[in-house]
């Protein structure tokens, strides 16, 4: 593994590349930035915490705007969800995940029937007590 975590090695690229949507037929104009280099630019921004506008062009990853747009397109195409499932399955198959330390984030779980009906009504300080709460 590289000491630069944003570098996509050949083994990872072999998993990622088939998941990427195909480019439309080439039109006149500048050549698009190579997908692998652009992914490295995305990872560089996410790893270092810089803004997209601060991505140095001299690194060869393309502009921050290009990487940001490509990140959005890849997300909409479901690339990262698929990649996540593939890598989890691979790590699980080689017994490299400690499932005893798993955590579920409840902020992404919908409440059934809008929560419990027996919970107390909490009013904000100064809220008119005559005001009836909205129907739940």
UniProtKB/TrEMBL annotation:
Residues 117-127 have a biased composition (Basic and acidic residues). InterPro entries: IS402-like_dom (IPR025161), Transposase_6_like (IPR052909). Residues 110-136 are annotated as: Disordered. Residues 9-84 form the Insertion element IS402-like domain. It comes from the Bacteria. This is Insertion element IS402-like domain-containing protein.
